[in-house]
Specification:
alpha+beta; Rhinovirus 14, subunit 4; 2 domains; three-stranded mixed beta sheet; 3 helices; about 55% helix; rod-shaped; binds zinc ion
Length: about 100
């Protein structure tokens, strides 16, 4: 092995070391991009609360598995039925007014 080859291999080894270091650094940055999940408290309009994991600490729902008709088999919403009706009335009146406009 000549002196030149020895120097070349030393530089090459250093280049590989730097490349590996950069790749590891890139992974660390990507890891930081992922959203941070925390323990969240979910609160439903029916009063049901439970814990889950989310990017938000508090989650408020109109319906959940405890009060949704799909899960309960009942056709009555605990509170949402009134809200939907009010919303539909309000929206309906608004649409009629716009048509006259
Ligand atoms: Zn509910």
């Amino acid at each position: 092995m000549t002196e030149w080859e020895d120097a070349f291999l030393t530089i090459w080894a250093h280049a590989v070391y730097l490349f590996v270091s950069c790749t590891k650094g890139g992974r660390a940055v990507k890891k930081g991009i992922h959203p941070e999940y925390v323990e969240a408290i979910v609160t439903c309009a029916c009063g049901e609360t439970w814990r889950t994991r989310s990017t938000k600490r508090e989650i408020h729902l109109e319906v959940c598995s405890a009060c949704h008709p799909f899960f309960t088999g009942k056709q009555k919403y605990v509170d949402s039925a009134g809200r939907v009706e009010r919303f539909q009335r309000k929206y309906g009146q608004r649409s009629a007014g716009e048509n006259k406009g």
